[in-house]
Specification:
single chain, elongated, 2 helices, mainly alpha
Length: about 60
């Protein structure tokens, strides 16, 4: 399994509540929902590296 970084994210209560509801609708945790949202945004912006491209850490 790939290593994951941890960080603190401050979100206003209304936004958090909406993310929490969305996560529940999708049967995900809030953390899982945020990961999915970030991944989708990166994919839509064509910011993800191709599978065969080396990452900056390698």
């Amino acid at each position: 399994m790939a290593k994951k970084k941890t960080f603190v994210l401050r979100v206003d209560p209304e936004t958090f509540e909406q993310i929490e509801k969305w996560a529940a609708d999708e049967f995900r945790s809030v953390n899982g929902q945020l990961e999915w949202m970030i991944h989708k945004a990166l994919k839509d912006a064509k910011r993800l590296k191709k599978k065969n491209e080396p990452s900056e850490e390698e």
